[in-house]
Amino acid sequence: MKTKKNLIAIILIISTTMGFAQTAKEISEKASNVIDMEAMEMSLTLKIYNAKGRVRVRQITMASKSFGQINKTIMKFIAPADVKGTSILVFDYEKKDDDMWIYMPAIRKTRRIISSEKGKSFMGSEFTNADMSKPNMDNFNYKILSSETYNGHSCWKIETSCKNEDIEDKNGYSKRIAWIEKGTYLCYKIKFYDLSGELHKVQSIKQYKKQANGKYFAFYMEMKNKQNDRKSQMIINKFQIGSKLPESSFTPAMMDK
Questions:
Q1: Which of 9, 61, 96, 212 is the most buried (most CB within 10 A)?
Q2: Global confidence as pTM
């Protein structure tokens, strides 16, 4: 009996040690990978609320596909009339800053979104241009703050802080704290802190659905600005894994088509 108890104790020690073996960066990488799609197409509704609750609604189509080491995403606004035809193109690289372009039909011009604009508002919403692509993992420091249950999910609280002021400017925040569920690695909540270290925005991520390729996709995201009481919602209306679009569809020259 004593031998059996000792064996159980050893197993518990090993299990406990393994449970803390993951670093904060490893947990964050797994959280990124579990929602990473090689190719997909979708349509979504973007709702932008002002502080008085008045809402503007935008309809968007989006396609994303990997070509070699580059993931390319094209977003097109299809309604209402005042934004119809606006397009955004993102080249997401593994080890360097993303390239982004915007086409504005009112002036019939495509221009590159420079680094200092990536932390700015995405089409008047509380999301930023930087939110439209994956961040470079090497640009941040990672720390496990604690464990906490959020909406019934047992989560790690992971703090991610920018390594320098230049990276802060590009992303529009100094640090963020994410609630990442243990076991699934799905992220359910993120708090963003501004460049002064004050709480700026809170993002809620809901309605995850497991896809045929084993990855998960969230069908609802909300960003609340705690400093001006505005909020924005992204609601996915239609989603499919894979895309038949050729690489030529993901070029600046095709953004006005």
A1: 61
A2: 0.89
Amino acid (1-letter code) at residue 247: E
- Dump pLDDT digits (tens) for 16-51: 444 457 999 999 999 999 999 999 999 999 999 999
For residues 1-24, give the mean pLDDT: 56
The residue written with tokens 């797994």 in the block is 30
What residues pair up with 155 in beta bridges, in sequence order? 148, 181
Contact (CB, 8 A) for 137 and 25: yes
